[in-house]
Amino acid sequence: MSMNVAFTLNGKAVSAEVEPRTLLVTMLREQLQQTGTHVGCDTSQCGACVVHVNGQSVKSCSLLAVQVDGAEVTTIEGLAENGELHPMQAAFRENHGLQCGFCTPGMIMSALDLVQHNPNPSETEIRHWLEGNICRCTGYHNIVKSIKAGAEAMSAGQSKA
Amino acid sequence: MYNFNYHRPQSLADAGSTLQNVEDGKLLAGGMTLLPTLKMRLAQPSDLIDLAQINELKGICQGDNGSLVIGAMTTHAEVAASPEVQQAIPALAQLAGGIGDPQVRHRGTLGGSVANNDPAADYPAALLALNATVRTQQRSISADEFFVDMFETALDDGEILTAVEFPRPKRAAYAKFPNPASRYAMVGVMVAETDTGVRVAVTGAASSVFRVEAMEQALTANFSPDALKGIVVPEDNLNSDIHASADYRAHLIGVMARRAVAACLGAD
């Protein structure tokens, strides 16, 4: 039996018929064609699937689509404005914060959640916060650098959290 | 995942009656254990009853004698960030802030963790050491009676955990040796000096959380890390797996207990 799920995705109302067992990440990727959110481990450990639900970072591989009915969902596709990268995205590019890029959407969504509570995180705080995000290229050093730079760019008043 | 029917009741009464009326219903709290279990097809409930919309199950308030009453659907992140919890039982806020990772803490709930009674979960140690009381729609159950065995609690079929009441301890601390990948406790020890005496609860080491009487007696006589020297928990009933052998876990219990006592004394 399928159910109708309706929520706000990156500021726009979306809805679809899904089976109750459909994961949020599956709905995003396969029904809404938003493939920026990745499926890595599919066991809620790697964080490639991190999106924001009502402003909080969560792992969309461990959430049913029906659970976000009525919620506000933000994915990596919702960050750039008018073709311009969000400062956090730009910081990842400038600081070589990605190698293969697979973990990057989750890293950025996780980083933005950190920065909204802690606008000027230390390296230690960033590393602790990233406990739920795994980079298989092991590029953590530049990821941490990128997040620090992104946070600084954001506090310099260049964009939204 | 096998398919199921999904319900999203707005009240505790509705959730209770839905649970009674379906064939094999399961309650969905944060889903941080249940959904991975379903994805691996280790369970096949006919119906999922999502408790997320039930306001009666949320929030943190003061109980009798300065105790804290925390609603079952309160997330780990909310407990960790709560000024009330940080002030009354800082060890509990610290424990909640060390569960899983930030994204898991945004979804995972106190009630879900406690009702699941995973042998490596953190919260059972807090409930047992702090002499907490589990509340359901119909009764109150002491932590000593609540945790029965691996993934088994005193909850009856159809019974819904609504809140946990934590008496305020004189002092308490939690020390955990996390599995570096999953962040579950390989061994976690909560030491608390409560109105009913010193209590030491161990999680992660055996099939279910347990108290260590020898340590409690030693700490009652002399509340210091040194008092625990030489007290060894027999390894016979401890877990042995790819992460740690039983004798290593037995050793870790002593180390974590001493660290928790030191933290109680402010010498962390």
Task: Describe the model.
The complex is a heterodimer of chains A (161) and B (268). Helices cover 35% and strands 16% of the residues of chain A. Chain A has 161 residues and is α+β, with helices and mostly antiparallel strands. In chain A, strands 2-1-5-3-4 form a five-stranded mixed sheet, with helices on one face. In chain A, a hairpin with a 2-residue loop joins strand 1 and strand 2 (12-18). Chain A is globular, with a radius of gyration of 15 Å. The mean pLDDT of chain A is 95. Chain B is α+β, with helices and mostly antiparallel strands and 268 residues long. Chain B contains eleven helices and 14 strands. Chain B has a five-stranded antiparallel sheet. Chain B has a four-stranded antiparallel sheet with strand order 11-12-13-14, with helices on both faces. Chain B has a three-stranded parallel sheet with strand order 1-3-2, with helices on one face. The mean pLDDT of chain B is 96. At the A-B interface, strand 4 and helix 3 of A face helix 2 and helix 6 of B.
